[in-house]
Amino acid sequence: MIYQGMRIYSEDAVTNLLVCHTNLHLKKAAIADVNQFHSRDNISKPVVMRFDQITQLINKQGMKTQPYSYPAEMSFSDDELTRQKRSKWLSKRDTKFNRIYPISNESYINQYLYGDGLAEEVIELMKEQLEAAPDSAWRSRGAYYNALNRYIVFGSTPNALLPFGLKQCGSNYLHIEEPGEDNVKRGRGGADNRNSRSKSCGVTKKHKIQLQQVISCLKSSDGKFTFSRVRDVFNLNFQSHIIEREVDGITSRTYKAFDESQTISDDQIRYHFNQILSRAEFKKIKYGPLLYEKDHADRQGEAHDGVIGATHRYEIDATILDVYIRYEFDNSGRYTMGRPVLYLVIDVFSTMIVGMYLGFDGPNWQGASQAMVNACLDKVEFCGRFGIPPEAVNWPCAEIPVQVTVDNGNEHTNAVISSVLRSEIGIRAYNFVAVFRGDAKGIVERKFGVLNEQSIHFLAGSIPEKTERGEQHPSNRAEETYNSIAARICLEIMFHNNSANRIHKLDKNAIRSDIDITPQALYVHSLHQEMNGGRPSKNEDPGRIYWAFLPEETATVRSNGIHFEGLVFHSDYAKRAGWYQRARHNGAFKIPVKRPRDWSTHLWHKTPENEYICFSLKNTNSENPFIDTHWEPLMHLLEQFKDKSHQNKLNRRKLMATKQGLLDAIEAENRAQIAGIPESNRKSMQTGIKGKQALYKALLALYQMIDFHQTVADESLPETEHLSQQDDLDDELYL
């Protein structure tokens, strides 16, 4: 299947093409040459090719395909870009996008790529903007075409206009070999350093080599290794004249420092010292490997209209189920976590339910995104979480769709969602409002009704249609756990997909193929008939799918792991990348992550190098209450732990007071006993200690024997005898 974001390339990289736009109705696509991205400042208009031409190209010997890796910044939120100190990128992006916004919708892009072009529209747009803002408006049509080409090539999303090339600023800096007139110091001092108080020269390769020699020499010596010592040795040996004089057979050595313009400053030395030695390496040299490992190393223990076939468009809807879920981490009472929200993802063409998510927030984009992840991934492992054996799973849908229609997202702006979907997996998300119409949404809503009426309403804790006055509230009768409800829904979905009657949706090809009339049969047939096999998610990095759909959140890297919502995660990548060392020596820092809310064991992170990293929960075992759990009950459990910890502090304070009172009584008794005993003036060890110890042991043994005989005697006497003895004793006491 030819999709937006497909990269077509040869092994020798001579051919390196990007499918940046597709028109499924015309069966054409716009192709850009990736090799030109870095050799030109402006991106050319993409070339249009027919699907059959592209297929012939792909089938040539030596040609390969894979998803194109867009710049990582396209999938980052504005908050994350701001945190990376790239807020100026956002203003540049917004300025360009506002200029071309009137011609950026899908109809204009199709006209530009596959039709008569946009010459008249661009001229009219330029006139309007010149009249509105003559000082800041673009004055050439080429500027509009350059921005529009970049917008299309990088996925038709506003983040396509981010100035990615600025990442390379400074990479072509001229590195001078030897000190001389050309090596003016870089920085804010002006082109010739005239505005700087310091008149030192620029750092050359020779300076770096000399500094490396000093560091190598001092770190292998027995003396104390500090930056000040490195700086002084460097200045004496490489930034001073050495003058030797011989007077009366005695040679004396004098050092005379170079002029400032011939030296590098202490700040420059410190900067390049830190470039040569990381803080971790510096501490390892300073304290030694054993002490470093002991004290300083990190510790880790739309409707059916326009839909071509299956997976062309997925739509999502949600409802609050009429049942209360039992809270399973507290058995002191029948407690509930409330009513869950069920999200269903439906393939518009076949009406097959391709994904679901059961959560407790929303309905909102956050829940819908979790459902979309599920729609794109294999269902065997998913159903296995809830105890459904693999042989019982008949849910063959793990495809990436062409379009997605969802309700408006509250947590993320439409631009961010669209940008991430397009840049990560080439999904065109046209609609972010409640535009569901006709049969598609009606099918989902009817399915919700069937779930509630035929399955949910018969469960303990469900909400009845009619409630008698004085009847116990259903929240007090909750029995079903999250996993049991999720398992019931999975089974109900598979039953629907393989039993619902969709005979009215069969086309000529389906009738000729004599397929079944169920949504699943229609889905599988259409996938191969109209969609060229679809786009299986197994061919993609799973991290790409998680990162495309899930909302961005923030985790904190500390020296002992990656902290998120009270739990600690770990990854070998973080260890290799030196994150834990950096956090230990420079302080904790933030990273963007994305989490599957129904599976607490993993988090996902995307590096600036476009690598997807999976973080796993630390110290996982079968008894760990945090593993393989939905985040909602997990957060309840964490709150319980906080309450218990707080109560423990209060109890400790009370016990401490009680203990101290008893200790004071013991101390007072001891002091009273020795009050009249004279203190010893003896300085050597006392004599007779062993004899006193043996005597005390004999006394303890005697006390134990008396207690034993008394206990045996009391047990052997009959109850009546006890009573008569007690009566005699009472008579004696009160005579």
TrEMBL record:
Gene3D superfamilies: Ribonuclease H-like superfamily/Ribonuclease H. Residues 180-202 are annotated as: Disordered. GO terms for molecular function: nucleic acid binding. InterPro entries: RNaseH-like_sf, RNaseH_sf. Residues 180-195 have a biased composition (Basic and acidic residues). It comes from the Bacteria. This is Transposase. It comes from Vibrio panuliri.
